[in-house]
Amino acid sequence: MKKPVFTDTHCHLAEPILRCRLPEIVAQAAEQGVAQFIVPAITPNDWQTLLAWQTQPEIHALALGVHPWFCETYSPQSHADLAQHLHDNPSLWVGEIGLDFHHTELREPQMAVFQQQLDLAKQYSRPIIAHNVKSLDTFTQIIKQKRFKCGGIAHAFSGSLEQAKILIQMGFKIGIGTLLLNPNAKKTRAAAQFLPIEHLLIETDSPFWRGSNQATPVLLAQIAQELANLRGMDLADLAAILAENLAEM
Ligand SMILES: [Zn+2]
Predict the structure, then answer these.
(1) How would you write the pLDDT of the chain (249 residues) with one tens digit per residue?
(2) CB–CB of 235/4 below 8 Å?
């Protein structure tokens, strides 16, 4: 029987701690059935690294953008560069972009930078990888105001079933990660258990995990197993469905 194969739909392989031993990390993940990756950028400094990976067979998708924590790195030049890269590379996505209102002092600049990047995603018809923390109302407002309909992944989902449904209505898949491994994350575990499975994806957000920031995509094997247990599913069936969900994007 063929081993189930999974895609880590959110891992920061360009982070130095992962990039410095990438072949080893990729081999280790593949051994556990984690064979494909979606890699988002954090700042414009990552963009050239990601662009150079476009032909790698393990890459499912690459996303160029600026993370809300680092919105001050998004300049008019970055905006022009991002537009050019999207124009030149039809398979690029836009990410990781969005809002994080944990960081209240950055609220206004985050909104401005998110909107500018969303404009480009819309102009070039690309899905986005969305970071959205304590900001669902504003996020929803902006998506609707901009009439953004290209969807994407609502990454690191940490909300309730009801909040997931709002994101799904706007065309997003729900990216669930390491929170699934936390027995106290009851709301999110319930969302993972009861949402229609065609809207789910799984991710590690490597290397970021539990403050030590040394996670690697191999962790996805545990997340997949936990989701299969929660839903009473066979691992192979889960892998097939998640692959279909991705193929729709
Ligand atoms: Zn991320």
Answers:
(1) 568 999 999 999 999 999 999 999 999 999 999 999 999 999 999 999 999 999 999 999 999 999 999 999 999 999 999 999 999 999 999 999 999 998 777 899 999 999 999 999 999 999 999 999 999 999 999 999 999 999 999 999 998 899 999 999 999 999 999 999 999 999 999 999 999 999 999 999 999 988 778 899 999 999 999 999 999 999 999 999 999 999 989
(2) yes
Dist. CA 11 → ligand 1 center (Å)? 7
Q: Are 13 and 205 in contact (CB under 8 A)?
A: no
Give the β-pairing of 172-176 and 93-100. Answer: unpaired
Residue 155, annotated as binding a ligand: yes
234 annotated as ligand-binding: no
**10 is an annotated ligand-binding site residue:** yes
Of the candidates 4, 18, 10, 13, which has an alpha carbon nearest to the alpha carbon of residue 224? Answer: 4
Distance 1 CA to ligand 1 centre (A): 34
Domains of the chain: 6-247 (3.20.20.140)
Report the separation in Å between the CA atom of 40 and the middle of ligand 1, taken as the mean of its atom positions: 7
